[in-house]
Specification:
With 71 residues, the chain is of the alpha+beta class. It contains four helices and three strands.
Length: 71
């Protein structure tokens, strides 16, 4: 990951599928891995998160709305 910029571009955000993994959501929000998982486990993630088995998926529409990028 060295040399990779943190965060995501507007174009990258708008190209996301309907739901993304928690790592992608964390990157879009500027959250670290540990903090993102902590918030998701406590039900305090800043947008809607779905728990599918042992995985978390962030609803892209909610993420875009939170970031002011919703259509």
């Amino acid at each position: 990951m060295a040399g990779r910029p943190k965060g995501m571009s507007r174009e990258g955000m708008l190209a996301l599928p309907a739901a993304v993994d928690l790592e992608t959501g964390n990157r879009a929000l500027g959250l670290g891995r540990s903090k993102g998982y902590e918030l998701a486990k406590r039900g305090q993630y800043p947008c809607k998160v779905l728990r599918l088995g042992n995985t978390y998926r962030v609803v892209t529409a909610d993420l875009l709305e939170l970031l002011g990028l919703a259509a």
